[in-house]
């Protein structure tokens, strides 16, 4: 039996071939065999100025951000240290002093 590669999106080992494409039954991802999908699935997060962000960077908030479900506000100029990048809509995971753990969108921050 041929050994098919794991899914580049979710890492599932239950992939199967459907015509000329490889399929993943767990996440429904489709890709062409031999493509560098795993390398291209690497996501890049850029700040408001276009600088590439990395895990562990320090950022500065460039707009007042209301904290959902609270009366707190993250003020302009707030520095956030040691960020963690995640692949979702709010792509920065961090802890802000006085507020706690938060997720931020990269369009509202700049690299410090």
Automatic annotation (TrEMBL):
PANTHER family named in the record: PROTEIN YJDM (PTHR30305:SF3), PROTEIN YJDM-RELATED (PTHR30305)
Domain called Protein YjdM N-terminal: residue spans: 3-32
Any one Gene Ontology molecular-function term assigned to this protein's record: hydrolase activity
KW Repeat (keyword) present: no
Superkingdom classification of source: Bacteria
Keywords, ordered alphabetically: Hydrolase
Domain Protein YjdM C-terminal: 45-112
Keyword Cytoplasm part of the UniProt annotation: no
Protein family membership: Belongs to the YjdM family.
Name of this protein: Phosphonoacetate hydrolase
């Amino acid at each position: 039996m041929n050994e098919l590669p794991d899914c580049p999106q979710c890492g599932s080992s239950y992939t199967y071939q459907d015509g000329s494409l490889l399929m993943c039954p767990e996440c429904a991802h489709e890709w062409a065999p031999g493509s560098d999908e795993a390398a291209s699935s690497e996501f890049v997060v850029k700040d408001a100025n276009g600088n590439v962000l990395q895990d562990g960077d320090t950022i500065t908030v460039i707009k007042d951000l209301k904290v959902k479900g609270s009366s707190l506000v993250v003020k302009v100029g707030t520095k956030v240290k040691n960020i963690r990048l995640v692949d979702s809509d709010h792509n920065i995971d961090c802890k802000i002093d006085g507020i706690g753990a938060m997720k931020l969108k990269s369009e509202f921050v700049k690299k410090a």
